[in-house]
Amino acid sequence: MATFGNLTDRLTDAFKKLRGKGKLTPADVDGTVREIRRALLDADVALDVVKVFTASVRERALGDEVNKALNPAQQVVQIVNDELVTILGGKQRRLEFAKNPPTVIMLAGLQGAGKTTLAGKLAKWLVSEGHTPILVAADLQRPNAVTQLQVVGEQAGVPVWAPEPGNGIGNPVKVARDGVKEAQRRQYDTVIVDTAGRLGVDAELMKQASDIRKAVDPDEVLFVIDAMIGQDAVATAKAFQDGVDFTGVVLTKLDGDARGGAALSVASVTGRPIMFASTGEGLGDFEPFYPDRMASRILD
Ligand code: GDP
């Protein structure tokens, strides 16, 4: 994957040096751990996450955890793989559907993160899973956000609840609440609520998102984050966690060639799982996120 190409190369180089060694000395392990540490930091993985990661790799590589089927170099690769799975959230976490439909899924994130596109992707995927989603346009901040959601809804073949002129325009909380009521009335089983993005973390818009959260009581709040955001990822994620207490993360733009390590840190620093990944502009460029598959791709 382009986003992690450099990280993959660097880790592969670090492992290569261990090949052919019969037994690893503490110096071998320390040398490798140092290289892993540099590779992760250069990929923009957050420092706190790198520290825990490398300490754990070191401890396990020096410990007497022995898998006789693997040579020492393979054992280190296995340990790094396991630790990557751990920082990526461990097991895959699926969407939680409400016992009494509709299931309400709220989206939050910075402007340009890919929220509106994601609303369409998620809707299309839900349809393929046998669900009947409806989109709700509660992003009234950007002039063309409502139209953009309508276009995306049409592409995905799902209806969009949007404010009519005079019907709550300017009040995103009311639009969100009415959209959920409409879903109940027309018996859609999932409601995806798009909310306003912002350029930076903005107190007023965070309050708006928090008010929408209170009004629609969502089953899932997905924090959408652009994998290319770089070092700001962790601070942004923490601000959204304080503001809207999201239940899961969606990584977008994993097809880009920027360093994606910061986004990989988000699950670890917030304790919230990465649930979906978005890998392009098309509505089909979207998949559930599997920590173990991502770890294998990074180490491939
Ligand atoms: P929003 O402001 O969060 O609603 O973001 P948008 O959905 O409008 O997306 C911003 C831009 O990013 C658009 O040009 C999208 O086509 C693009 N985009 C969204 N997701 C992806 C992705 O996974 N990969 C790529 N390459 N572009 C994406």
UniProtKB/TrEMBL annotation:
Keywords attached to this entry: Cytoplasm, GTP-binding, Hydrolase, Nucleotide-binding, Ribonucleoprotein, RNA-binding, Signal recognition particle
EC number: 3.6.5.4
Entry superkingdom: Bacteria
GO terms under biological process: SRP-dependent cotranslational protein targeting to membrane
Residues that, per the record, bind GTP: 109-116, 194-198, 252-255
GO CC annotation terms, alphabetical: signal recognition particle
Annotated SRP54-type proteins GTP-binding domain residues: 273-286
TM spans (from-to): none
Localization (cell): Cytoplasm
Gene Ontology terms for molecular function: 7S RNA binding; GTP binding; GTPase activity
Coiled coil start-end: none
Catalytic activity: GTP + H2O = GDP + phosphate + H(+)
Leading EC class: hydrolase
UniProt remark on domains: Composed of three domains: the N-terminal N domain, which is responsible for interactions with the ribosome, the central G domain, which binds GTP, and the C-terminal M domain, which binds the RNA and the signal sequence of the RNC.
Family of this protein: Belongs to the GTP-binding SRP family. SRP54 subfamily.
Subunit structure and binding partners: Part of the signal recognition particle protein translocation system, which is composed of SRP and FtsY.
Main function: Involved in targeting and insertion of nascent membrane proteins into the cytoplasmic membrane. Binds to the hydrophobic signal sequence of the ribosome-nascent chain (RNC) as it emerges from the ribosomes. The SRP-RNC complex is then targeted to the cytoplasmic membrane where it interacts with the SRP receptor FtsY.
Protein name: Signal recognition particle protein
Part of the intact protein present: 1 to 300 of 523
